[in-house]
Amino acid sequence: MTSIDERTDVFGLDRFVPGLAQVEVREFDGRRVVWIEFDDADEPARLTAATAQQIHRGVTAALEQRVPVVLVMSTSGTDIVEGMAALHGWGLVAGALARCSGVVPTTVVVDGPAVSGPALLLGVVDVVIMTERASAFVNGPLVVAQFTGVEMGTDELGGAATHARYSGVATLVAPDRDAAAETALAVLAYLPDSVDSEPAAWHVDDPPDRGSDEAGAQIPESSTGSYDVRAVARSIVDEDSLLELRDRWAANVVTAFATLDGRPVGIVANQPMVLAGTLDIPASQKAARFVALCDAFNLPIVTLVDTPGFYPGKDLEWRGMIRHGAQLVHSYARADVARICVILRKSYGGAYIVMDSKTMGNDLCLAWPWAEIAVMGAGQAAAILARRASAQERAEFEADYSERLLNPYVAAERGFVDAVVEPSETRAVICAALEVLADKREHLEPRKHGNTPL
To answer: May I ask the CATH class of domain 2-188?
Structure first.
């Protein structure tokens, strides 16, 4: 462990301002990380101008030297006594972290409160790890009670469990500060130092051509039966390599890091155990954010599809299902990393499109033999196309529709599915494809940035 002050020839921080936040360059398995940590004190720190300047210089140095940033934070908010000077300092930190976005991985560990303006930093960084004693909110319980008349405790308003389950702010939750630090390093193991490099390969003993027989065994005989898609993912990826992110929020979609033949990848999968795997607003936001993270840091994306469509309802439509569903479309369409899609069972309608379909630009689209790829299911089609028919006629229509259209071969004939593979072959095919796609490069049109739907 080397103090950042002792590396002024590399980081240029010879006039470093002392303060509450300790900044140093730490090495883990040969990798340098700029580690910024508030004192583990009973009284949370106030974000003063001096402390903000110290954090800003550390983040800026990490950006210039292309190394990841980990900020371990506990703060009661901007120092009221210092006033504008402290606010200015917080703005410097926010701006520096925003400039890191898509360039170097940024992680915040919250161990205590994160109040007011500094809480917004959690929305800027790539990964947020909260300890069980942590809390975060823009307006605290007292302000909420004064303005709304609703009284609630700190944990209910912005505790770690609340942000893990309801807001999606917490990427992961750890028992304490030490465990959170270890978790941060575990996440960084899947990511490169910066956008300029690729993630380091892992040493694994799991053969790339190993059969993934357990994957297909997870799918129930009934097309409406539920199962845990994480079990499918675990049988395909390298043993003990799956690390799920935001597992409690928007659980109808699974986002996780893993490795395949030692190569770090991102996994996006519909979860039939929750809301039948349908897509709603939180699920679209969660998947879109994760796809963007993987694309920013050169991780191939493997998408496991089993969804009957978007979750219907007036509430979702009024809250902007169109806008938020478009976030997932936008993230996949602009991603230029290697992208492989595997249709496990159902893939209907608009959800078929947004879950990285062939026309969205994926590099390889696979389907299992029983996959159902269509505009809609047989029952929905009968309700529209045979709505005036008798019960028997509708049953005959559904049977014919299922036999002729609900299979992957119709899509394969038209080039929308590259191959129909057995579940046991899935791991081997994906690993071989990733090896071929390792040198994938795309020509990007010059522009400042796209207008991301928010």
So the answer is: alpha beta
Angstrom distance (rounded) from CA 354 to CA 332: 8
Using alpha carbons only, what angle is made at residue 127 by residues 321 and 258, rounded to the nearest 5 degrees? 90
- Tens of pLDDT, residues 437-449: 998 888 777 888 8
DSSP one-letter code for 203? P
Identify whether the C-beta of residue 331 lies closer than 8 Å to the C-beta of residue 291: yes
CA atoms within 13 A on the CB side of 129: 23
111-120, 336-345, 437-446: which range is least confident on average?
A: 437-446
Position 336 pLDDT exceeds 70: yes
The values of phi and psi at residue 250, to 5°, are: 50, 55
Q: Which residue has the higher pLDDT, 394 or 107?
A: 107
Question: Where residue 15 falls among pLDDT bands split at 50, 70, 90?
Answer: very low
Sequence-distant (≥ 6) Cβ neighbours of residue 198 within 8 angstroms? 192, 298
Give me the torsion for CA of 320, 322, 328, 332, rounded to 10°.
-150
CATH 3.90.226.10 fits 213-371+407-439, yes or no: yes
The owner of tokens 């790339």 is 208
Q: Where in the chain is the domain with CATH 3.90.226.10?
A: 2-188, 213-371+407-439
Q: Is the distance from CB of 210 to CB of 427 less than 8 angstroms?
A: yes
Closest alpha carbon to 33 in 170, 169, 191, 179: 191
Q: In angstroms, what is the C-alpha Rg of the chain?
A: 24
Measured between alpha carbons, how far is 309 from 280 in angstroms, rounded to an integer? 9
In one-letter notation, the amino acid at residue 126 is D
Question: CA-to-CA distance for 145 and 182, rounded, in angstroms?
Answer: 37
How many Å apart are CA 7 and CA 374, to the nearest integer? 59
Q: Which residue has tokens 């302000």?
A: 143
CB 447 within 8 A of CB 407: no
**For residue 72, is pLDDT > 90?**
yes
Per DSSP, which regions of 29-156 are E strands?
Answer: 31-38, 45-47, 69-78, 106-115, 127-131, 135-137
Give mean pLDDT, residues 396-416. 80
Name the H helices within 66-176. Answer: 84-100, 141-148, 154-158, 160-162
Strand 364-367, strand 372-374: pairing = unpaired
Query: Among positive and negative, which fits the CA dihedral 124, 270, 167, 39?
Result: negative
